[in-house]
Structures are given as structure tokens and as C-alpha cells.
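User:
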Amino acid sequence: MMYQQTNEELEANRHRQLIIEQWQKADAQDKLNKALYSVYLSIDWHKNILLTINTTLKIESLRSLLNAFKKHKAELESIKEKFKTMNVNSLRCNKLLLETNNLLDITFKRINDEQKRTT
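Assistant: Predicted structure:
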């Protein structure tokens, strides 16, 4: 003989499942926010190098910074897509992407200026 669940039991099971899904979403969102913060710290560190030591950086160092900013841009785009799939606001990610693009432009311009100056 099969056990038939009552409406109360079915509703309690649905409620438990909903709570578990909310916890999983919150946990995934927390992980993405931590990843975003980690990328932010790295961008800030590289930006400080670019802006603080701007006159003494050689082309090799500038290219290294350029590659770092490209890597950060790719990471941010990946995080942004994950936020989108979770239907979470990615405003901070967009702001960091904009700043990273600006830093890429500045770094690329400095590389070109340095190449022109040395030739």
C-alpha cells in the first residue's frame, strides 16, 4: 500500500525545497561577490603601479600590466555573465569593467608613446 502525503506535508516539502534553493543562490552569489572583490583588489594593485611609477616603467613592464588588465577584463566578463544567469544586478561588475577598459587604453597609449620615444 502506497503512502499518500497530505497537503500539509507536500506544502512543507515545497517550502523546504524553496529555502534550500534560496540558500544555494545566496551561497553562489556570495562566492561571485568574493571573486569580484578579489579581481577588484588586483586591478587596484596594478592601477597603483601604473599611476605611481608611470615615468620609470619600461615597455616590458607596461606590457605585463596590459596583459594583467586583459586577464582582469576576461574575469570580470565571466563574473558578469554568471550574475546575469542568476538574475542578479551586476552594476559593480560593469563599473569595474569600465575602469579596466580605461586602464587598458591608458596602458596601451603609454606603450605606444614609449615605443615612439625609443625609436
